[in-house]
Amino acid sequence: MSAGRTVEGAGCVTWWGFGPARDLLSSDTHRERPHGELNILLVGSADPRHILKTITGLTDSDTLHVWVIENSMEVVARQLVLLYVSLLTPENMSLHKKTEVFLEVFGNSEIRKETEETLKHAASQLSLSITNTLFSDSDTHPCLDTSLLKFKERDELVRIFKLWERPPSVPASVRKVWDARVRQHLGTRYDSRQGCFDWDLTMKLHQSGCGVISKHQYVKWRESGVAFEMREGLYQTANQSLLSTRVFNHRGDRVAVRGYWGDIVSSPYLSFGIETENKDLLKKQNNQHVKTAQDISEVNVLALFESLSTRGSSLLNENEPNLSSSCCQSTNSLLTEEKTQKDPCASQTHTKPEQHPEQQTQVLDLLNVNGVKVKFLSPDSLSKLPLKNKYRNLFNTIYCSASMVHQLDSFLREITAPDASLIIELANFLLDLSKEQVSGFADKVKEIAEESGFTETHYQSSDVYAVFTQKQN
């Protein structure tokens, strides 16, 4: 398999992970679960699955700071939208409906009109909140923080959200865009694509332990990009959060093309739909799974949202006596940390805009998840973290995706806490790779980790992720 074709299958933009959600502080990743003030660094996680799963394992006395680095602002924007939907209060959207909307935005190239309205509203509110962080140093939402991003990166987020809120009047057909990717990937095999889809499912995904992914749903996703259809309705509206811009060289000129450049082979079922603690969902009849990956995804995401609701509270409700207090300002605006101490990773590239008198901070009713903060860092910040004292020996867990592992280096030992774990996503579910390439990637990951001062553990429960602990001096 050529490198070009391999890239075409997995895509050049990682919209979801190639492995299931993990509690990154559990006994699967640590000798003993840490407690107290906890810090996790996510490098290229692509979606909030690990954040939501890790929150479920926190005790009441734990506090969790999650630091997120992605390789593009389009992925950051999508992470923010998915977290926004996750934090909608039960009063604004029932847990079941929120689960459906989340999965549609997460894994469908086309969504229902009602879901599009939710996406537009989320984009609008996030755009306003990030604009507010450009004008105000006041604390805003206690759970989400984009203040460590550079001004130009926040400007780019606002531009992306406005594009989602007001997409082009004559958008390109997502189905045509998706089909073009499939044609390019399969080449001469396109006319026999049903057989190719079936082979990838039965001989690769099912052989790798993903038997709950049904043929009907997987083939439909491979054909159209629609993975989750939980309600009767028309899935015909483009999911703007899965569209991005890719620059091509055409006859010596650089041409930007907006389209779908993500995974068209492995599927979004991997994040929430292939594992469950409820063994009834894995039952078989006549050697066939009774439930599907969609069913399991729905159950798992609903459970994660129930846990969020238990730990969280509505900012509006808890602050009703004083709606003008700083903690009751826009929950879409993002917490600015250490205002008097600027981060070198977020060094500003231009002067801060002046405050406009009419600029107002809105109050939004999102959940305040007690003791949890998610902070977004600049895409180029990973190697710069050791330059700041506050990051030294800070992180209890560092997670890195398969697509970002090349950024890891010996500086990791400077930013990890004692007994920290390094978790790296392997290439098991990159279906275009041969067994030899998958094995070679795992060997390379081990080599990189050992050069960075980590040693492989023997208490991990799966081979989807490689788990390492810091070497003891």
UniProtKB/TrEMBL annotation:
Keywords: Cilium biogenesis/degradation, Cytoplasm. Required for the assembly of axonemal inner and outer dynein arms. Involved in preassembly of dyneins into complexes before their transport into cilia. GO terms for biological process: axonemal dynein complex assembly; motile cilium assembly. Residues 144-457 form the Dynein assembly factor 3 C-terminal domain. The gene is dnaaf3. Residues 15-111 form the DUF4470 domain. The keyword Cytoplasm applies. The lineage of its organism: Eukaryota, Metazoa, Chordata, Craniata, Vertebrata. It holds the Pfam family DUF4471. This is Dynein axonemal assembly factor 3. PANTHER family: DYNEIN ASSEMBLY FACTOR 3, AXONEMAL, DYNEIN AXONEMAL ASSEMBLY FACTOR 3.
